[in-house]
Each structure stands twice: as C-alpha cells, then as structure tokens.
Amino acid sequence: MLKTRVIPCLLLKGQGLVKTVKFKYPTYVGDPINAIKIFNEKEADELILLDITATIEDRRPPFELILNIASECFMPLCYGGGIRSLEDIRKIFSIGVEKVAVNTYAVENPQFIQRAADSFGSQSIVAAMDVKKTLVGDYKVCTYSGTKTTDVDPVTHAVQMAAMGCGEIFLNSVDRDGTLSGYDIDLIRKVVEAVSIPVITSGGAGSLADFADAVNNGGASAVAAGSLFVFHGKHRAVLISYPSRRELEETLK
Length: 253
What we know:
Blueprint: E1 5-13, E2 16-21, E3 24-30, H1 32-41, E4 47-51, H2 63-72, E5 77-80, H3 86-94, E6 99-102, H4 104-108, H5 111-120, E7 125-133, E8 139-143, E9 148-149, H6 154-164, E10 168-173, H7 185-194, E11 199-202, H8 208-216, E12 222-225, H9 227-230, E13 231-232, E14 237-238, H10 245-251
Parallel strand pairs: 1-4, 1-12, 4-5, 5-6, 6-7, 7-10, 10-11, 11-12
Antiparallel strand pairs: 1-2, 2-3, 7-8, 8-9, 13-14
C-alpha cells in the first residue's frame, strides 16, 4: 500500500481554475467541477483547492462554489484562501470540506491557528507557507499570494505553527511554482527536520521522479503538484491527468 499521498493542487481564480508560473501569469485551465470529476475517476488521494485572489481582494471564501465542488468531490478536500475567522472554517466544514489551509492570516495572527486547532482538531488545520529565496540566498515566507515578502524565516514559522497545533504544513516554493524543474529539496529538508508533523511539499514537480526525490531526499510526507497534472507536452496543452496506482507504487516504493 502506498504511504505517500500524491495530491493535485488546484488554483481557483474567480469561477475557474488557473495555473501560474512563480505565482504570476495565470493561465486558464478549465472548470473546477470538470476537473474534480476527472480526479474522482483517476482516484486521486486527496485534493487541495486554493483561491489565489481571496486574500488580495480582502473577501471571504466563495462558499457557494466550494459547496458545489465539495458535493462532487469523492476524495478528502482541503480548501485555502481568504480564511480569517473561526466562522469561516465552521462554514467550510459544514459544506463537506475536510481540511482548511491558512496562509497569510497564520503569519499575521499565529494564535489563530491555535484557536482553530482547539476548536476543530489539529487533523483538520493545515498551516500553508509560500516561500521565496532572497537575492542573498535566504528563505523568507510570502503572504498575499506571493505578492508580499516578509522577514519571517520558514523554519521558525513552521516550528511556531506546529507548536500552535496545526496538523500539517503545506510548503510551497514560489520560485519553483509552475516551472516543472523539480522541488526545492534543500527547503523541504530544512522544514521537515525542524518539525514532527507531516510536511506536504509543492512547487516544481515535473515528473514522477520528482515525487520520489521530495520524499527520499527531502523527507516530505506528501507531495502536491499542479502543472504536472493539468498540462501535457512542451506546448503545455491543457490535459488533466493523474498517475495510475501502479506508476505511483513503482516510483514511491
């Protein structure tokens, strides 16, 4: 049985799905409901859905759309984007979502993660981190969909989030996003070695071998990918796919 979860990460912008490169240049890749149906058929392990404009636009999550998506989704679903209250989380859970990912607000108000974990259980609260490398080679946490670089060190932030009670860390490399150039193994390893909770890594997967690299050399507990699952070929034609169980077992054995 495969121990490593392999998770499609879908980016929501308005009513449609997009894919970015280094958090910029969003390309429309289709209707979320159609994508969900395909991932259902492919028996994906789990799904992460991130509204990439909710925080920037200072609005609440799109509850009606989340409801429609959750109603079609046969696998565990994690939603992130615009979450700033326990009521937001309560409403999201009430419509069938299993986990929430909190990013910007977790940086601005770390105690919110503690309150959320106390209220809903650690297993349902994911601390998400977007991380960018500075010109001098340091890693820093970004907020507001990668548009604001903070002075927060990702390892320090991960340790704090774990102490606040989150059940998982979702670690996303801004620099690798959409590049298909492989995960940032050094970044993954730094965070994994600092915490005792599972780390889901994202940003850069271009092949199944990259999954194995993240797990075997980075220590990630789960791998997430976007472009690898929605594009096909050098011209990046939109084609939603997901590896077979046999392919994953051979890669991640």
